[in-house]
Fold these 2 entries.
Entry 1:
Amino acid sequence: MDLLHTQDGTPTLLHPVYGEAYHPRQGALLQARRLYLEQTRTHLHPAPRVLEVGLGLLVNFRASLESALLRGVRLRYLAVEREPLPGELLARVRLPLPLAEEVFQDILGRWPAERFAGPWGELRVLFGDVREVQLPRLWATAVYLDPFSPRANPEAWSPFVLRALRRALRPGGRLATYSAQGAFRRALKEAGFALHRVPGVGKREWTVGIGRGVPPG
Ligand SMILES: C[S@@+](CC[C@H](N)C(=O)[O-])C[C@H]1O[C@@H](n2cnc3c(N)ncnc32)[C@H](O)[C@@H]1O
């Protein structure tokens, strides 16, 4: 697969079946920072635990790790991915994040594995479909919901999945996603999230869901 360049100079890929890019054309790293990292407040958290749906090119992971390393905090990251990309391809996806890139080189040396750990923290990968994996209860301080769009990839946005993500989130934790689709937003509210519309970059709105209190189940 050929890498494409987004407008902030960071790479992305086009998925051959979904016909969608892994990141917006305005910037892969730009979205990782402005949406996932900042809108979930992960960049401020003293002990961040991120649950991601769609690890992809590990752009969101590396942006989160760089932020944690610069602040001297450990990152715990649990990602669900059903189509892991080959290591040779990931090795070509370089990002201007010097601290995280060093850890990424170690990860690539053992890719794909279910757990990577070091003084920086931990990355665990659940290789499977988000509808089928077992997520930990009340674990995450943040959820990055980053599959392909609800139109192309509807199963990853279903009420069933959103309820599972709500159960995985700690009280006060935040879910962020680029999608502003109406049906998805209604399902997010029904799953027990307080819905917030935030201004997007390259699109009018992104979506943030805040998990208030302890969810049932
Ligand atoms: C938009 S890309 C993610 C980009 C990634 N977050 C990054 O930082 O580079 C979407 C990813 O979601 C994964 N995905 C889509 N549907 C899924 C599902 N039902 N379960 C698990 N992973 C899924 C795809 O394989 C793909 O890697």
Note: DSSP finds six helices and ten strands in the chain.
Entry 2:
Amino acid sequence: MLFAFDDAQCRSLAETHGTPCFAYSGEAATEQFTALRAVLPSRVRLAYAVKANPHPGLLARFAALGASFDCASIGELERVEALKLPPGRTFFAGPGKRETELLRALVMGVRVQAEGFEDLARLDAMADREVAVNLRVHPAFDIDEGNRIIGGSGPSAFGVDEEEVPALLQKAAQLRHVRIRGLHVFAASNQRDAAKLRTIHGAVLNLAKHLHEAHGMTFEQIDLGGGLGVPYAPDEAPLDLRTFGQGLSGLLAEHAWFTDELILEPGRFLAGPCGTYLARVVRIKESRGTRFAILEGGINHLIRPLLTGQPFPVRAVGKGHGTLSYTLAGPLCTSLDRLGEVRLPELAPGDLLAFGTTGAYGLNEGMTHFLSHPVPPEVWVE
Ligand SMILES: Cc1ncc(COP(=O)(O)O)c(C=O)c1O
């Protein structure tokens, strides 16, 4: 599903809320969550990665469907705290956790994904009771070769380098309150190939087995991170959920030594398909053989295409398909402000464009402060 809203809904949203604006479909959120949940073995916990989109409507919807939450800052922790969830449903990861954030996590009873000895030592100094944490490990092998977001087996700001784990365990054994009871490995990014995900997750479980056998680590939880992909173009196949679920069941059967809980932290998969961004064409400009459509919003609202080269799918509302080439530019005073090179029907000022799959890494990642343009409304649609 590239677009959560049809033409009539897009027109009505634009008229009611003005443009540019973001709209999120509650129905699509429910569909994404329930379809994924349905294929997962019962001992896989789904923790929504709040960074993908912290909109309160999405958080409330996923909470009601039984989600746990993966947070990456005090701001995200506060949003999840407002949901008043039972203990055990919130996780806190991030390579630069400040003391105030760790203290908040401790008070909230949140499970911390420790990224180094500093996290463990700081928590230990604050705690007055036993605190279970997961240890994020940066594998010594390329877990998803060539994936720029995962970053390969080179130096990393994330987690503890695998070869440093034995020394860290020795130091951690001296701590009074903190106990390492889980493993976290961030292993994939926008991966739509179920077989590839099985290979990647298998590699994480093999690493866990090695840490268990060679260093005596035991795990209540093994967190496989996020990275379940969604299509961004009509010719991209969606993740085959049944094969994905079977892959995880197969891996659990192969790793009979591990009898506890697996965690998945999808952000993009759960939130991406729910969102549509609506913006109107302000002007059309031809420049030296290139036809620009200059829009009301650009990378101030959608910066992903600039960061990853992956454009969002776009359609001209009410105009059907077309074959004219356009460079979509935003209103910012930088030539980096581009949303893609697309083929659309002939456009005119005032035409409405809908960008699909913008429910994840959309507005909350944009450069909304730059040039002080008004921040677009975000509309929750039941
Ligand atoms: C620790 C962690 N978990 C989960 C996610 C979510 O990833 P995705 O949206 O690709 O599922 C991220 C993304 O950066 C992450 O850093």
Note: The longest helix spans residues 194-215.
